[in-house]
Amino acid sequence: MRTQVEQVPDGADCCGTPVTGALSESDAADLAAGFAALADPVRLRLFSLVAAAGEICSCDLQGPLDRSQPTVSHHTKVLSEAGLITGERRGRWVYWRVAPDRLDPLRRLLDEPHA
Amino acid sequence: MRTQVEQVPDGADCCGTPVTGALSESDAADLAAGFAALADPVRLRLFSLVAAAGEICSCDLQGPLDRSQPTVSHHTKVLSEAGLITGERRGRWVYWRVAPDRLDPLRRLLDEPHA
DNA sequence: CTGGTAGATTCACAGCTGTCGATGTGAAGC
DNA sequence: GCTTCACATCGACAGCTGTGAATCTACCAG
After folding, report:
1. What does the DSSP assignment read for A30-71?
2. What is the helix (H) or strand (E) element at residue B77, kind and residue range?
3. B78 interfacial to chain A (CB closer than 8 Å)
4. Which residues in chain B are closer than 8 Å to A21, comparing Cβ atoms?
5. A71 touches chain B (CB under 8 A)
6. pTM
7. Which positions ≥6 away from A86 have C-beta within 8 Å?
8. How far is A62 from chain B, CA to nearest CA, in Å?
9. What is the pLDDT of residues B89-110, one digit of tens each?
10. Nearest nt to the B43 alpha carbon by C1'
11. Which residues have C-beta within 8 Å of that of residue A46, sequence separation ≥ 6?
C-alpha cells in the first residue's frame, strides 16, 4: 500500500513537490553500508586507532578496545569488508591501515547540505 | 577476561605499542550514534531528500521513500534525535531541514586519516 | 614432527532495529 | 460541537548485530 503523492492543482495542500536530486536506492544502500561500519563505538575506536597509528597489528587492538580476540577479529572484518581498512598478513600477524578511497563518498554526502 | 597487552622487553613480538591519539569511549559513542543514524538506506535517502529540498514536509517524504507513515515518522525521529535534521510544525504539517552543526564532528573523523 | 602463538571461524544467545497495523493527539474546517 | 487530515505513539514481529567460549587454521621455532 504505497501512499502515492498526488499532484494537487496548486491548491492549499503542501504535497506534490517533485523531489529532485536525491540519492538512488542503490547508492543509498551502498553509502548506508559504509556508515553502518562506523556505527558501532568499538568499531569507531578501532578505526581511530588504525588511523592514528598509520599501521597497527591486531594484537595491539585487543588491549585498548578491551574486547575478546574473536570480537576484535569480527570488527576488523566488518570494517575491511566495508572497504574502510585493509589488512596485510606479515608472518603470524596482520597489520591494518585505513583505505582512504572509500571515505570519499561518505564525506561528500556530509558536505552536500553545505553547498 | 581482558587479554592485557604486556610490555614485551623490546624483543621479537609486535605488541606493546602505546597507542596515542585515539578516540575516547564517550566520544566514540557519541560519533557512533551519529553514524548509526545514517546507517539505514531509507534514512539516508530521507536525509538526502531533506538536504536536496532545503525544506520538505513529512507528507512529501512518504511517497519517494515508499514506506508507511509510521515508518517515515520513526525515521525522522531517529534523524532528529541524532541532531541531523530539525523539524518545525506549521499548522498540520511538519517541515524538516538539515541541522548542519552536528555533521562537523562526523566529517572531521573522515578527514582525519588524510592529515 | 611437535608445541606454541596470532588470527579466523563457528555457534549460541541477548539486545537492538526496521517495519507496519492500530490507535492516539492536535490542528484546521465545517 | 463533529469530522477530517497530518503526524506521533504503541504493540508486535522478523531480521539483524555485538559478544565471547570453543574450535579451527596458519605460521614460526625447536
Report:
1. HHHHHHHHT-SHHHHHHHHHHHHHSSEETHHHHHHHT--HHH
2. helix B69-81
3. no
4. 52
5. no
6. 0.84
7. A80, A96, A97, A98, A99
8. 7
9. 999 999 999 998 999 999 999 9
10. C18
11. A61, A65, A72, A75, A76, A79
| Nucleic strand D under 7 Å from the C-beta of B69 | yes
- Cα–Cα distance between A79 and A74 in angstroms, integer? 9
The C-alpha cell that represents B96 in the structure block: 524538516
Nearby residues of B76 by Cβ (< 8 Å), 6 or more positions away: B46, B58, B61, B85, B87, B94, B96
Of the candidates B93, B95, B111, B114, the residue with the CA atom closest to the CA atom of residue B31: B111
Select the residue from B26, B48, B92, B108 to test the A interface by mutation, using most A Cβ atoms within 10 A.
B48
Q: Coil, strand, or helix at residue B63? A: helix
- Residue A23 pLDDT: 85
Judging contacts by C-beta atoms under 8 Å, the chain B residues touching residue A45 are: 22-23, 25, 28
- The per-residue pLDDT for range A60-73, each reduced to its tens digit, is 999 999 999 999 99
In contact, A84 and A39? CB cutoff 8 Å = no
Q: What distance in Å separates the CA atoms of residue A40 and residue A72, rounded to the nearest whole number? A: 12
Cβ-defined contact of A60 to B111 (cutoff 8 Å): no
